[in-house]
Design a protein that fits this description.
alpha+beta; SH3 type barrels; 4 domains; five-stranded antiparallel β-sheet; three-stranded antiparallel β-sheet; 15 helices; 14 strands; about 55% helix; elongated; disordered N terminus; mechanosensitive monoatomic ion channel activity
């Protein structure tokens, strides 16, 4: 059974609505309604702590230190306040001014010494910088009280700490941009590229091996679907709906064994594919980090995609492992009688139904985690998304009440185990084998081969003809002039011989019960026998038993029942037929 795309979407909406109902009232407080006054969103690289906002100063893709400024509530109307991110940009620009004359020309081999000093100007502590070839100092930044308060260090000590960091990184920036350093960086990048290519070839070969193996298994599954190669051939005397049912059960067993092997191979192939992608991403990120000109790209541009791809891989791996665990659960359920469902056939049918439903729920949960994480990395409140999803689910439920009824009734059918795939049931005027089930519809295949689709909401009463055991309610009319004792003795003899027959013994659960005479009239005597059979074998048993009874009655000289009429010769209105 495979959940349709619509069913999966609606299940996702139901989960969202449930999560919404379990949330506290604070969730609705976080769901903001657009106001007339626009609110500026806080930049992603800025952190607010009450009246202080902080951000990092970045140079050559490295976080040097953290600065702080007064909180700016409205960045569109900051007045005299300078937002902390603007201050960070100014500091980074000042750092670039110091090293720019020696980093713009790749053929410039000069490597002057960087001189960074701390000074007091207008009662403020400032950090100045230049190189030994420059005559004029450049004011890098002013160390403020908020910087000291945020970092928890006095201003003189904090200024000295930042001075050392700036001098070390600026000197390193100049030395990494010389022609000699560029040659070393290119050589290192080429070695990394060769290693990445070599590892990719190895993983590609392994992936091709698993891919061919997966194709072979898929061919076996396709052949099983087309030819219905059954692991356990049913008995040759099985016919009709019961034969269809036994073949379907054996097909499910064989199909699931191939499916489990296919999933294991797919898991390894999936891991190898993502390992290839991870190696290339890591290689590209490392190569970009080697060159100081592209180090910022390595840290900024690749950070978010790598996080997303990592999350996608982990959830995909979790989904694959979930399939594997569900398969193991299925095997354990088949090998050990954890739940008292009844006979083996019934248990296998219910297992197949519940396993596919677990897969659908697992898929919905995986996609919920993926979407929630992506929105959270973009700064969108996940609780607001859940609230919006709950409102959407409510709107869908109001507009699609029949579909919601179908799904709810489908869940009840599944949980109450009213029927499962492979059962032969009767719903209203329709009778057939359950060929497919989803949370919205149930599909039956009747004896004529017609596929009947029934919405679950319309299933009010269902008769399961193959649940645990079945019964033949055998009735036959014999002539009204027949000796009742003789007729009952003939039936008892036939039932004993039928029960002793080894070919039919496996189809009968107990000795057939001759109930006696259930009616008498001018048509004849109505004799009744009950035969308790294996699930789905009642029709085959009734045909064979009826044939034996008719032959036995004929041998005993007991005629079958037929209507009798009496004509009164004295009545002038009636005359005997000529």
């Amino acid at each position: 059974m495979r959940l349709s795309a619509l069913s999966r979407t609606l299940v996702l909406c139901l989960f969202t609505l449930t999560a919404l109902l379990l949330m506290s009232q604070s969730t609705w407080g976080q769901f903001t309604i657009p106001q007339q006054q626009s609110q500026v969103v806080l930049p992603s690289n800025v952190t607010r702590y009450g009246n202080i906002e902080a951000t990092d100063v970045v140079f050559d893709g490295k976080n040097l230190f953290t600065i702080a400024s007064a909180t700016v509530r409205d960045r569109n109307n900051a007045n005299s306040l300078v937002p902390v991110e603007i201050r960070a940009e100014l500091i980074e620009a000042n750092l670039q001014r110091i090293v720019a004359p020696y980093t713009q020309n790749l053929l410039d081999s000069r490597e002057p010494k960087v001189i960074i000093s701390v000074s007091t100007l207008n009662n403020e502590t400032v950090i100045l910088g230049r190189t030994e070839l420059q005559q004029q100092n450049i004011t890098v930044l002013t160390v403020t009280e908020l910087d000291s308060s945020y970092n928890g260090i006095p201003i003189p000590a904090l200024a000295e700490e930042w001075r050392q960091i700036i001098q070390e990184n600026l000197q390193q920036a100049i030395s990494q941009r010389t022609p000699q350093a560029l040659l070393r960086q290119i050589s290192q990048a080429l070695w990394i590229l060769i290693i990445v290519l070599f590892m990719s070839l190895i993983l590609f070969g392994l992936n091709q091996f698993f891919r061919r193996r997966k194709i072979d298994i898929q061919k076996q599954i396709t052949a099983l679907k087309n030819a219905r190669k059954i692991a356990e051939n049913p008995s040759p005397h099985l016919h009709g709906l019961h034969r269809q049912r036994v073949e379907f059960i054996n097909y499910i067993k064989s199909h699931f064994s191939y499916e489990q092997r296919h999933k294991i191979v797919s898991l390894f192939s999936y891991i190898l594919l993502w390992m290839q992608l991870a190696i290339w991403l890591a290689g590209v990120a490392y190569i970009l980090s080697i060159f100081p000109q592209t180090r910022a790209i390595s840290t900024k541009i690749l950070r978010l995609p790598i996080v997303w791809l990592t999350m996608w891989f982990l959830t995909g791996l979790g989904s694959k492992l979930g399939d594997f665990l569900i398969d193991r659960l299925q095997q354990a359920w088949e090998n050990y009688n954890w739940f008292d469902i009844g006979e083996i056939t019934r248990k296998s049918l219910r297992i197949s139904t519940n396993v596919e439903t677990l897969r659908g729920v697992k898929t919905a949960v995986v996609y919920m985690i993926r979407i929630s994480y992506i929105f959270s990395t973009l700064g969108v409140p996940v609780s607001s998304i859940f609230a919006l999803g709950g409102l959407l689910a409510l709107a869908i439920s109001l507009g699609s009440q029949n579909v919601i009824k179908d799904i709810i009734n489908g869940l009840l059918i599944l949980w109450e185990d009213q029927f499962g795939i492979g059962d032969i049931i009767q719903i209203g005027e329709y009778t057939g084998m359950v060929e497919s089930m989803s949370l919205r519809i149930t599909q039956l295949r009747n004896p004529e081969g017609c596929l009947i689709t029934i919405p679950n909401s319309s299933i009010i009463k269902v008769s399961n003809l193959t649940r645990l055991w079945s019964r033949v309610n055998f009735e036959i009319l014999v002539d009204c002039q027949t000796d009742p004792t003789q007729a009952l003795n003939v039936l008892k003899k036939v039932t004993q011989e039928f029960y002793a027959d080894s070919q039919w013994r496996q189809s009968l659960l107990e000795l057939p019960e001759v109930l006696g005479i259930d009616g008498a009239g001018h048509e004849g005597l109505l004799l009744r026998v009950w035969l308790k059979t294996q699930p789905g074998q009642q029709w085959l048993v009734s045909r064979e038993f009826r044939r034996r009874v008719v032959e036995a009655l004929e041998q005993a000289g007991i005629p079958l029942g037929r209507p009798h009429q009496v004509f009164d010769r004295s009545d002038p209105h009636y005359s005997l037929p000529e």
